């Protein structure tokens, strides 16, 4: 496929379905489960442990090289990982749907947490194979569009299993709601089931690098010694730091100004849909503007969205203003994420796509998580206004690494 060829509709539907499938377990664990557990009187300590269930998404970097090297002759390389992993998630969701919630939220709490951990483990492994498949299927120019599908599909999946599940579980009940979630994931598996993945390389070429005990060190050493890779990792680590510092305190600020859970849920739903639109717009502009211009423009918009949050302090009763600022912030976030992920794909080596992308993503998530963990302390020290302005200035300052990297290239 040449660099200017458009991806086919089949490829676009395939990638959208895979990334939406990833969002389903994430929305269930991050958004729906804390509410359902608390409604059943579960102790806050147990609810806090849900955060640990996301560890596979951070640790997947440890087994990603094997996902790139080990293949299935019958199913194809990426299908050989994606189909079993999504099948495992469907099986786990169906098992939870057959159990009474009173048992799961009571004496069966360990079974519930263990099943959710398995779901996250399977989904994280599927993510490695999906990213590798996406890099191979998308030519350079259209990787922005491909990452629009990644960001948009993932958010749709999270909305369906998070906000969507909470909206229907009261009327349909736990068993029917989880059953529908499993059925939805089964439907999302059909595109990859029907996709005729071609054999990627002759078997001797695939196994040129053995999948032995030293694969992890050899793999990432090879990635980090690429020309310009260290400079690019600086961009990856710093590009979203302003967003990581400011965004965790948006909802607490609104809560302090009288917003209840229902109002926040509706705001999250609408702003997330705006973010999906921003991701699609960002992908189309990336195809026209290229990497450096997209990163700089979208990075400035991301900082502007954070700075605009300071306008909402003391004006939480102005619902229209809150929606306008929240939607703008989400649109800018979607655009900037798409541009960053698209260039991350460009840095992946042939035959190492899944693990190379995973290392970059895991490094970015780890540092952003550490910075985000400090957001509450910063807000308490300097106030919400100081936090959002500081986050915007941090985001703008970090953009200096973008032209430095491209200048060196």
- CATH topology (fold) name of the largest domain: Growth Hormone, Chain: A
Report, as a whole number of angstroms, the end-to-end distance. 24 Å
CATH superfamily of the largest domain: MFS general substrate transporter like domains
Number of helices: 19
Key traits:
mainly alpha; globular; Growth Hormone, Chain: A; 2 domains; 0% strand; 409 residues; single chain; 19 helices
Question: Would you kindly provide a written description of the structure presented here, covering whatever features stand out?
Answer:
By secondary structure, the protein is an all-alpha fold. It folds into two domains: 1-196, MFS general substrate transporter like domains (Growth Hormone, Chain: A), CATH 1.20.1250.20; 213-409, Growth Hormone, Chain: A (Up-down Bundle), CATH 1.20.1250. It contains 19 helices and no strands. The radius of gyration is 21 Å and the shape is globular. The two termini are 24 Å apart. Mean pLDDT is 85; it is low at 200-208.
